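Supplementary Note 3. Input sequence used for the single-chain structure prediction.
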Amino acid sequence: MDEFQIAKSMAEILDRLKSGGGGDQGRRGSAELGREERELARLEGMTAELALRQARATNGDFKTAMVEASLGVSKELATIMAATVDPVVAGLRKASVEEGGGEVCGVCQEEMEVGDEDVKAMANCMHKFHGYCIFKWLKQKGVCPLCRALHVVNC
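The predicted structure, written as discrete structure tokens, is reproduced below.
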């Protein structure tokens, strides 16, 4: 299991906990919570196994590999959960910068680098921006900084 798969399983557990497990709330007791806690503990163990494999593959330190694996899982989990945490994120799509494109973020006016992992596109007009920049802009304005298209949130 890789970082994304572990994070996806964690997101499913968190979603079940948030929605009450889909069953009768009156029957949901400590046994059910114990099951969720056991599943999360199992996923933490899988993260440790992933870190151990990474440490062995690079002849590195296990503690360092564990921190890196935990951060990787956390980053993937944050990406998965982002749309449910803040509706502004729901209307943004992951994007990439094309080779030789010379694309500039419409908010900060800085050139976006090829391979930059934090590039977002507006869902309706597909204009591209640095993720941090467009998130901050949309929190204040609610429209695309380039064409003023209304930011549509898919709730």
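The two ends are 30 Å apart (CA to CA). Confidence is low (pLDDT under 50) at residues 22-26.
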